[in-house]
Amino acid sequence: MLSPPLPYTPQSQRTSPTARSRSIPYAHKPPLRLLWSRLLKLTVLNLCLVSWGCNSSAPIARQDDAGNDRVVLMLNWYPEAEHGGFYAAQVHGIFEQHGLNVEIRAGGPNTPVAQELVGGRVQFAIGNADDVLLFREQDAPIVALMAPIQTTPRCILVRASSPVKDLRSLGGMRLQANAGRPFLDYMKAEGLLQNVQVVPYPGTVANFVTDENTAIQAYSFSEPLLAEEEGVQVRKLMLSEIGFNPYASCLLSTESYIEQNHDTVRRMVLACREGWKKYLESPVETNAAILSNNKQGMTTEALEFGVQALRPLCLPNGLPADEVGMMSPNRWSELVDQFVQLKLISSGKVTAESAYTPIFLDRALTADQP
């Protein structure tokens, strides 16, 4: 059997939303990631087919002494506000109410979400919708179950005083962004990177706060706070406003686990949705739990900033709180079409129907099913 391949990194490479780069050991990412070419990725992905095929398993859910199903939920990054609803389900006993004993396992840089899921070492994980499409292109049978963050937090950050008012007026700027990310492919295809110097993102806002001609990749609930703490007011140019809008912080599992543990998955989805509703309404206790589980410089202020920024992303356009986590077939189809056009996935190989399932989202939270 071949040794496990290098993992695809699902989470945007970025600094912790609360810590300065000088105090974070992972702030500067390995040069190999920045030089990673698509050709080399293809070689690695071929190895993934062998490794995943040999290790794939979907055990029936185990139970604890109280009769609750024991499962592991792997995060795609260190615990932060973007994972708040999952922690809320744990803090407020919602998992237990639904017969679940959930271990939330923190992630970090290069978290091998796909390998852990397909290898059966975890039953659930967190990832973004664009990650799901790339996983499935690699023949990893991963499926999205719910999407608490409806509007992508991905944005480009410029100074509030900058003449750049939107993403179509970036010409002449220096953009710090990680190579190989789908949003850059989309921006290039839309002609938004003409006369823009794209350089590696160092995982810190240091250059941004000292150079008015620098823009940076960002998450709307993260880097803006870092810049404002340095006395720089910012303008967020949201990628969703130009049509790039993958769901974020999706709950993921595998086709085989879903098939063999249908009721466990149903209860997990319901509990996570209830957790997200609780977190958006009352985050204080949950933020305390996140703070105790994040040793990377997290602060209460950063979590408060994060949840405030998340609310309109989780419940956009008046979406009722009881419908948190819902997913649209049209949104998935649009994302698949975009990735096919960008040549990130193969036409016909990855479909919206295979990338997500709506069967656990057929009603609002106020109407639990037996």
UniProtKB/TrEMBL annotation:
Compositionally skewed regions (Polar residues) per UniProt: 9-21
Superkingdom per UniProt: Bacteria
Sequence ranges assigned to domain SsuA/THI5-like in this UniProt record: 81-285
InterPro entries to which the protein is assigned, alphabetical: NMT1/THI5, SsuA/THI5
TM helices/strands, residue ranges: none
Positions of region (Disordered): 1-24
GO BP term, pick one: thiamine biosynthetic process
Name recorded for this polypeptide: NMT1/THI5 like protein
